[in-house]
Write a structure and sequence with these properties.
This protein has helices spanning 8-18, 23-30, 34-42, 50-60, 64-68, 78-92, 110-125, 129-149, 153-169, 173-186, 190-206, 210-224, 234-253, 257-274, 287-300, 304-314, 318-322, 325-342, 345-358, 360-364, 367-377, 384-393. It is mainly α. Among the domains are: 8-68, Orthogonal Bundle (434 Repressor (Amino-terminal Domain)); 77-230. GO terms for molecular function: DNA binding.
Length: 398
């Protein structure tokens, strides 16, 4: 964590480096020049407008108070999540999983390991991130040992995928990239490679590498796409569609509206064939997730009014209520951002409170959730529910 005694420009530089962004990438996401960023980080230009500090904090996915050197009280569960990330980092840094000896953990039987992996996925779907982070280090080691000792490739890939996804949630994009890269590297056939590339796209977007995310996900989608879409197995089509959605969101993050629209439309065609449900590879893809992606793409492209309209339409679907708590709460955070950008503070408050009711960790643990809450808490009078949430998370005033 950046020290509170540092000038704000130094803190910006430290967090930019931690997020794996170059000055140019950071500048592009801010809508500023690389020269502007360089001057801020060297202290030549002063950040003296709070609205600009909020913009910088949003791109860095930290609370604005962190940049000001007045950190908020950590929310319930935040310390647990931080400790959990450290444990995952240590597990990923181990290279002795194939070694055995008197102190080695016994490798669980394949059926037991499969149950543990399924439990990890379900924990993620319920957005219990601190709990998941506590169990992942041992699960990573177990999956690595099982892979070296037999045929457990698919389980190892899934463990790396879960790890990458939860690290993105925690704002650890660089570490998520490592886990996702290992998922792709461990895979031994095209469909497994494709499933790992979904998380690779998420991680690359999280560190501001949208073009790389587009290239990787589109290539993986084309590799598994059937020659005749109607003839493809639904599981493979779902993975292909999920990859196209990742590519669309990456395009939107780069401001490439035509590519984003084309990619989402391609995914929508596949979704009509796939229908609803979770495939055997724990890939959620259906017509509703396509519409949710349209909302996120609109927010990224600055079309907040369109995002709000699409959001209010999609949450009326019966299929919306069947989505996991993690998926619904994450979308509600995106909706809150859209409402904020349109100036509808009441709408943003409603979306944020509903996200907290659905999956508290999305709001209280994720940097993205805390940023939205911080903007609302300092933006003026807020409803009692938001005020109580702000107090619980550690925002005590403007």
């Amino acid at each position: 964590m950046a020290g509170s005694g540092l000038p704000i420009g130094r803190r910006v530089a430290q967090w930019r480096t931690r997020r794996g962004m170059t000055q140019q990438v950071f500048a592009d996401r801010l809508g500023k020049s690389a020269s502007w960023v360089d001057k801020v980080e060297r202290g030549v230009r002063t950040l003296d407008r709070f609205s600009v500090i909020q913009d910088v904090a949003a791109v860095l996915r930290v609370d604005p108070l962190v940049l000001l050197g007045r950190e908020a009280t950590p929310p319930v569960g935040a310390n647990d999540a931080s400790a959990g990330v450290d444990g995952v980092r240590a597990a990923l840094a181990r290279y002795d999983a194939a070694l055995t000896g008197p102190d080695a953990r016994p490798t669980p039987p394949p059926t037991e390991l499969a149950r543990s992996v399924e439990h990890a996925w379900l924990t993620y779907r319920h957005a219990r991130y601190p709990q998941l982070l506590r169990t992942l280090p041992a699960l990573i080691v177990d999956a690595q040992r099982a892979h070296h000792g037999g045929d457990a490739t698919a389980l190892l890939v899934q463990v790396y995928r879960i790890t990458a996804s939860v690290l993105v949630k925690c704002g650890e994009g660089g570490l998520a990239w490592l886990a996702a890269d290992r998922a792709v590297s461990a895979a031994d056939q095209s469909l497994l490679i494709a499933t790992g590339t979904i998380q690779l796209g998420e991680a690359l977007r999280a560190i501001g590498r949208g073009r790389l995310a587009m290239a990787a996900t589109i290539a993986a989608a084309h590799r598994i796409a059937p020659a005749v879409p109607q003839d493809g197995p639904h599981d493979e089509l779902a993975v292909c569609g999920a990859l196209l959605l990742q590519a669309a969101l990456a395009a939107a993050s780069c401001g490439d509206a035509p590519s984003a629209r084309e990619l989402v439309d391609q995914a929508a065609e596949i979704a009509e064939q796939v229908g609803d449900g979770v495939g055997q590879h724990w890939v959620v893809f259906d017509p509703t997730t396509v519409e949710l992606a349209r909302v996120v793409a609109a927010v990224e492209l600055g079309r907040s009014a369109e995002a709000v309209v699409r959001h209010e339409q999609v949450i009326t679907r019966e299929s919306w209520r069947r989505l996991s708590a993690e998926h619904r709460a994450a979308h509600l955070l995106d909706a809150a951002r859209a409402y904020l950008l349109t100036g509808d503070l009441d709408g943003a408050c409603r979306a944020l409170v509903e996200a907290d009711r659905t999956a508290p960790a999305e709001v209280r643990t994720r940097p993205a959730g805390r940023t939205v809450l911080g903007e609302l808490a300092r933006g003026g009078p807020v409803p009692a529910d938001v005020a109580r949430l702000a107090t619980a998370v550690g925002f005590t005033g403007r």
